[in-house]
């Protein structure tokens, strides 16, 4: 039953204007981190920048700014912002949060990444 609810949630968020999918687990973690900051004006910004051993690197950070051309999506009260230059690289990408003994932190599953480096920090 919870699998069906998650599937329905994913289908609902697939049509997000950013093309990015934020899982329920990641949205909960983002909410908690923003609450720790004690601010209600922060949003999660996801960007792609040149760098890393494979050519492009992800950046995830909290931001209060609104830039010209930003694409904003809401995931259960969490705003996710993608700039227009990063948007094509992130279309269909899923942002999740892992909290296991072997992995902890935000993860990005990006169908646009043809290759990535061993550390998983950059792609092309």
Give an account of the 3D structure:
- This protein is of the alpha/beta class and 124 residues long.
- It has one domain (2-123): Hypothetical Protein Aq_1857, Chain: A (Sandwich), CATH 2.60.300.
- It has three helices and eight strands, in the order H-E-H-E-E-E-E-H-E-E-E.
- The longest helix has 14 residues, at 24-37.
Q: What labels describe this entry?
A:
124 residues; alpha/beta; 25% helix; three-stranded mixed sheet; Hypothetical Protein Aq_1857, Chain: A; five-stranded mixed sheet; 3 helices
Radius of gyration: 14 Å
What is the CATH class?
A: Mainly Beta
CATH architecture: Sandwich
Report on the biggest sheet.
5 strands, mixed
Q: In angstroms, what separates the terminal alpha carbons?
A: 37 Å
CATH third-tier fold name: Hypothetical Protein Aq_1857, Chain: A
Mean pLDDT over the full residue set = 79
What would a concise description of this structure say?
The protein is 25% helix and 34% strand. It is of the alpha/beta class and 124 residues long.
Secondary-structure blueprint of this entry?
Elements lengths: L1 H13 L6 E2 L1 H14 L5 E8 L5 E8 L7 E5 L2 E5 L4 H4 L3 E6 L4 E6 L12 E2 L1
Parallel strand pairs: 1-6, 2-5
Antiparallel strand pairs: 2-3, 3-8, 4-5, 6-7
